Amino acid sequence: MDKPIMAKATAVWLVDNTTLSFKQIAEFCGFHELEVQGIADGDVAAGVKGFDPVANNQLDQSEIEKAENNPLHKLRLKHYAAATGEEKRRGPRYTPLSKRQDRPNSILWLVKFHPELADSQIAKLVGTTKPTIQSIRERTHWNIQNMQPIDPVALGLCKQSELDAAVQKAAARKAREGEVMSDDERRKLVSTEQSLSMEAEPKIPSAIAGLETFSLSDDEAPKRAEEEKIDADSFFNLPNSSDDDEDDN
């Protein structure tokens, strides 16, 4: 459902100038009902000036009256050319000031664990520039010694679905190029859900490498034990008692 332009200011106006329910305003403006209640209580959007949707050709007065008379009626947004594409803006992703200091750490994580991602993909995921990504790839970033790789999803810089989509796109590109990938690389190029559901590849511990074909059946065990049985006398090479008597004479 399309949202009105200046949705929060529109919600402020509807709260102040109509008797619509919080749910109706929330559905029309694309907010949670509790957020609209916060606007009414003055806890949210303090200082925001209301934006009249009727005067700005986004809503008919008759539509508001219908909704006021019927709590189940949903407001319908008028077609407004200026509102088209409001949610999809071009340009780099906006990163809040509080999270911008963590952006290099997220870039380092992506470069380390998903080197197949193109610089353009990383720039789109975390809202950065290609020169910054390149400096981290080449470890020439001014703060590279103090940086720690942190998952951008955990930092809130991107969604898990967005990261999975970028990884799958990189996997498709690898497949088209015909590059041979190891199991670990292939596991990185799938979504998180797919990776967790994959069975682990059986691997032989390095401590017993070279003994893959060794086997000892039950029939062979007694025979081998008999062959390796050590005679104590022959082991210590003790002389016979008769030899000792001759030496004494």
Automatic annotation (TrEMBL):
- Highest taxon of the lineage: Bacteria
Q: Region (Disordered): which ranges?
A: 173-249
A Pfam family it matches: TrcR
What are the Basic and acidic residues biased-composition ranges? 174-190
**Record's protein name:** DUF1013 domain-containing protein
Which organism is the protein's source?
Qingshengfaniella alkalisoli
